[in-house]
Design a protein that fits this description.
single chain; 98 residues; alpha+beta; 4-stranded antiparallel β-sheet; globular
Amino acid sequence: MPEPVILINSFEVPDDQAEKFISAWEKTRDYLETQPGYVDTSLHQALAPNAEFQFVNVAHWQTAEDFMAALQSPGFREAAEGLAGYRPHPSLYRVVRT
């Protein structure tokens, strides 16, 4: 049986582009939440202004296959075009201990 996965995606965002980034993230989130297997997501902002990654997205998906299918879906590229200028550092994770 496929197991749920967690996407953790850290973004490099210049300080003066925080609001622009958040708006682009919201547009992408609004699209992804319509996709099969989407569970939820939350965007976190660093408290320290000099943190390497000012923003970290944590999303839950029912399966890795659902997540990959959402990235390949016809509307994803358009929905995520605003994020293109921000270097992402994504990876999928599974829970191993609680």
